[in-house]
Amino acid sequence: MKNRQFKIITFLTTMVMAAVISFSILIGNPALAVASFFGGIAVMYLSKRRLEDIVEDERIRQISQKASGITFQFIILSFAIGGAVLIAMKDTYPKYTDFGFFMSYAACTSLVLYSIFYMYFNMKSGG
Questions:
Q1: What is the per-residue pLDDT for 57?
Q2: How far is CA 41 from each of CA 5, 9, 45, 46, 120, rounded to the nearest angstrom?
Q3: Cα–Cα–Cα angle for 66, 70, 14, nearest 5°?
Q4: Residue 54 has what pLDDT?
Q5: Which of 34, 64, 85, 121 has its CA 20 to 30 A from that of 17?
């Protein structure tokens, strides 16, 4: 399979997943949404395995790592600040306090997981 075909299949799969998940939310069926999500991931994984034109070098890998790191830092910082703001505004908007705690816990859990994986890979690579 060529790269163009893979992009078309990925686009169509994403569109079908979005439509099915939207429909399942409208009818109140979470099982259909979960099944659609995992089915779409399976289709994308299987089509990625058939892709012939994969050319990846160290530069592409390094750019991907930098982009992932910056994205992770941005998301964690956003969750931490957003959670703190929502918790601080508990008198004005009391119904958002639980979401603020969720965002704060998600940021802390992500940082703990990052630290564990960092230590593991550091030890694995001889650090």
A1: 76
A2: 17, 12, 6, 9, 27
A3: 90
A4: 63
A5: 64
pTM over 0.85? The answer is: no
Q: Count CB atoms within 10 A of the CB of residue 1.
A: 14
Predicted confidence at residue 6, as pLDDT, reads 87
CA count, 13 A, side-chain hemisphere, 54: 8
- Rg over alpha carbons for the chain, rounded to the nearest Å, is 20
- CA 87 to CA 24: how far, in whole Å? 32
pLDDT at 126: 82
SS3 category, 2: coil
Whole-number Å distance between alpha carbons of 16 and 1: 21
Parts of the chain with a pLDDT under 70: 54-56, 127
Which three-class secondary structure state does DSSP give residue 87?
helix
Cα 14 to Cα 27: distance, rounded to the nearest angstrom: 20
Instruction: Give the dihedral sign, CA 40/42/45/46.
Output: negative
DSSP letter, residue 1: -
Q: What is the pLDDT of residue 55?
A: 64
